[in-house]
Specification:
By secondary structure, the protein is mainly α. 66% of the residues lie in helices and 0% in strands. It has a domain at 18-71.
């Protein structure tokens, strides 16, 4: 399995279709990491508001938690 295939599989759900929840969680976490990194080199005047950072963190946690719940709550069909 190549890295590209692994990355594509990372954003798929148990049915094999692309899921939005892990994609939003991934993009939100990238935004949080970049904002925190850039903010560490800037003045306090340019800092994002605390409420905005907390809202982004809640969106990321909800996406990760929702995706995790979907993985474990999937019911298998009996033949």
């Amino acid at each position: 399995m190549t890295f590209k295939q692994w990355l594509i599989e990372l954003f798929r759900d148990e049915r094999g279709s692309t899921s939005v929840k892990p994609l939003i969680a991934f993009l939100g976490s990238v935004v949080l990491f970049v904002t925190t990194f850039v903010n560490s080199f800037s003045h306090a005047d340019f800092a994002p508001s605390e409420g905005l950072v907390n809202a982004c963190m809640i969106i990321v946690l909800a996406g990760m938690g929702g995706d995790t719940l979907d993985k474990f709550s999937h019911k298998k069909k009996e033949d």
